[in-house]
UniProtKB/TrEMBL annotation:
Its EC number is 2.1.1.-. It comes from Gammaproteobacteria bacterium LSUCC0057. It is found in: Cytoplasm. The gene is prmA. This is Ribosomal protein L11 methyltransferase. GO terms for biological process: methylation.
């Protein structure tokens, strides 16, 4: 029988032991360490600077298949203040784990015309508006309710000739969808350089001419930037902090679309925008909210 290429040590631990266990596994030359929910406990939006964890966590350390397991177990037993609730070694199939995540993505229909299609799969409706997406290391695969809500809102707009700013662009999914649906130009902004790279790559995969999409870190966004539509699908706290910035980017009678917030956060998020933006009723899916409005005046 062929030995597995990789084996995984799985430890079920209380939250307070996870950081130490992670450090120990890496010191013992684990190739990677991942943390998973051990009790089906949801985590919603964290406060700024927080790294929330579940009360019960499964810590997984990935090791080469021929590693000596006894010394690893002995080292953990000596250093962890309490023994794991559960501990086991799991052999992993020989497969290309760098590509394994792709199994979990399927084409997604958003609205009547638009499909989000992984770059490694054929579009189910070739004649539809098909956005070919490879998320890479950036947020934005089309599977989250906030993305659905924004895309459905975009699909209903007359976008021909419009300039769109996608603030917090992630994979570029919203801005690229706007271009495929008829917008003239998109300005994509993100504080993560990897997101800007993913956006540019995804635009190229969708045959978007380079002059139709520009990518910027926030501090490099030209001062005279303005748009007919500003999209911001991020989180509640950044939306509150960015209110003046986002409003200033709107052209007269421009439209603002906010998402990434929970139903319970709607009032707090919209409050700093109320004087400048006339909001329409929100759209809600699975407790997540998208709300849009028009610049007053």
């Amino acid at each position: 029988m062929t030995a597995p290429e990789w084996i995984e040590l799985q430890l079920q631990l209380p939250r307070e032991q996870c950081e130490l266990a992670e450090e120990l596994l890496l010191a013992l030359e684990a190739s990677s360490v991942t943390l998973e929910d051990g009790a089906d406990q949801p985590l919603l939006e964290p406060a700024i600077g927080e790294r929330p964890l579940w009360d019960l966590v499964i810590v997984k350390g990935l090791f080469a298949g021929d590693v000596a397991t006894a010394p690893i177990e002995a080292a953990l037993a000596a250093e962890l203040p309490r023994a794991p609730l559960q501990q086991r070694w799991v052999p992993l199939d020989n497969r290309d784990w760098s590509q394994e995540w792709k199994r979990y993505f399927e084409p997604i229909q958003c609205g009547q015309r638009l499909w989000i299609c992984p770059s490694w799969m054929a579009p189910p409706q070739p004649d539809a508006v098909n956005l070919i997406l490879d998320p890479g290391l950036a947020f934005g695969t089309g599977s989250h309710p906030t993305t659905h809500l924004c895309l459905r809102w975009l699909e209903q707009l007359p976008l021909t000739g419009a300039t769109v700013i996608d603030y917090g662009c992630g994979s570029g999914i919203l801005g690229i969808a706007a271009l495929l649906l008829g917008a003239e130009r998109v300005i994509a902004v993100d504080n993560d350089p990897l997101a800007l790279t993913a956006t540019a790559d995804n635009a190229d995969n969708n045959q978007i001419a380079p002059e139709r999409i520009a990518t910027y870190l926030p501090e490099h966004l030209p001062a005279d930037s303005g748009a007919d539509i500003v999209l911001a699908n991020i989180l509640a706290e950044p939306l509150i902090q960015l209110a003046d910035t986002l409003v200033a980017l709107l052209k007269p009678r421009g439209q603002l679309c906010l998402s990434g917030l929970l139903d319970s956060q709607l009032e707090a998020v919209t409050r700093p925008y109320q004087r400048a933006v006339a909001f329409q009723p929100p759209a809600i899916e699975q407790g997540w909210v998208q709300i849009a409005g028009t610049l007053r005046g």
